[in-house]
Each structure stands twice: as structure tokens, then as C-alpha cells.
Amino acid sequence: MATERTFSILKPDATKRNITGAVNAVIEKAALRIVGQRRIQMSRAQAETFYEIHKERPFFGELVTFMTSGPVVVQVLEGENAVARYREVMGATNPAQAAEGTIRKTFSESVGENTVHGSDSAENAKIEIAQFFEDGDIVG
Ligand code: CMP
């Protein structure tokens, strides 16, 4: 399996509770390398563009409001099979359905405030990374 990259967001519930280091420890323990990382305040426009695929969903407004409610940490993770690996490490979108030991099972309080985002495909990872990183900001 080739080394690949995925895009990650540590969401406002993680920065608010000061658990970004604890989440990063789980990421690194899973052999994913944090090769790009920035703490930012997402604008409404950025959040709306990022989650455009969900714009018809009933939770879209709530999602954009939450993602702009405080700082987030955007990351590029690198490793073997990184997209699938990170999805495994995050656990199910709804923490109530997430497996033991996953980030969402350990840290998340609800499906809306579920601590982390990870790309769902290598193709989307490239698109998402390009929304938040310049090539020079990623050092593998
Ligand atoms: P994420 O992986 O960032 O992609 C879309 C997000 O929408 C998802 O994580 C959840 O945080 C959020 N989401 C999905 N379903 C719901 C829901 N039923 N109510 C609120 N937010 C949701």
C-alpha cells in the first residue's frame, strides 16, 4: 500500500476543551504523521464551501455555525493508506456508534460536535488540502 495523505480538522469542541494534544497523540499512535498543521478561525464562507456537499441537509446551518464557533486545527496527515486508516481511527460519525478506542468514542459528545473530520477519499483529500494549505506549508 502506498503512502498517501489525508485532510483532518480538529473541530471547535476539541479546541474549546483543550484536547488537541490528546487527539494528536491518538493520531500519531496510529502511525499517521502530522506533516501540516495550522490553527485557524474558519470564516462562514470557508465553512460553507468546505461543506457544500451537505448544503441541502437539515443540519447544514447548525454545522456551519458550529465550525465557525471557535478555532479549529487543520491538518495534513501522511501514512500508509492514510485516508482509510484515519477514518478507522476517528470512528463512526455518530459517537454513539463509534468503536471503543476511536477518537469519537473517546472524546465526542454528539454527532454534530464530533471532534474530528477526515477526508472520505484520496481524491477529496487533495481538494480539501488545497482549500487550507499551500504546498510549502506541508513538510513530509
Ligand atoms: P464531518 O465528517 O465533518 O462531515 C459532515 C459533518 O456533518 C459530520 O462530520 C458531522 O459533524 C455533521 N453531521 C452529520 N450528521 C449530522 C446530524 N444529524 N446533525 C448534526 N450534524 C451532523
Automatic annotation (TrEMBL):
InterPro entries (alphabetical): NDK-like_dom (IPR034907), NDK-like_dom_sf (IPR036850), Nucleoside_diP_kinase (IPR001564)
Species of origin: Methylobacterium planeticum
Cofactor(s), names only, from the UniProt record: Mg(2+)
Protein name listed in UniProt: Nucleoside diphosphate kinase
Originating gene: ndk
Major site of localization recorded for this protein: cytoplasm
PANTHER family named among the record's database cross-references: NUCLEOSIDE DIPHOSPHATE KINASE, NUCLEOSIDE DIPHOSPHATE KINASE DDB_G0292928-RELATED
Catalytic residues in the record: 117
GO BP annotations listed: CTP biosynthetic process; GTP biosynthetic process; UTP biosynthetic process
Keywords in alphabetical order: ATP-binding, Cytoplasm, Kinase, Magnesium, Metal-binding, Nucleotide metabolism, Nucleotide-binding, Phosphoprotein, Transferase
GO cellular component, one term: cytoplasm
Chain's role: Major role in the synthesis of nucleoside triphosphates other than ATP. The ATP gamma phosphate is transferred to the NDP beta phosphate via a ping-pong mechanism, using a phosphorylated active-site intermediate.
GO molecular function: ATP binding; metal ion binding; nucleoside diphosphate kinase activity
Catalysis performed (reactions): a 2'-deoxyribonucleoside 5'-diphosphate + ATP = a 2'-deoxyribonucleoside 5'-triphosphate + ADP; a ribonucleoside 5'-diphosphate + ATP = a ribonucleoside 5'-triphosphate + ADP
Coiled coil stretches, renumbered: none
Domain Nucleoside diphosphate kinase-like: 3-140
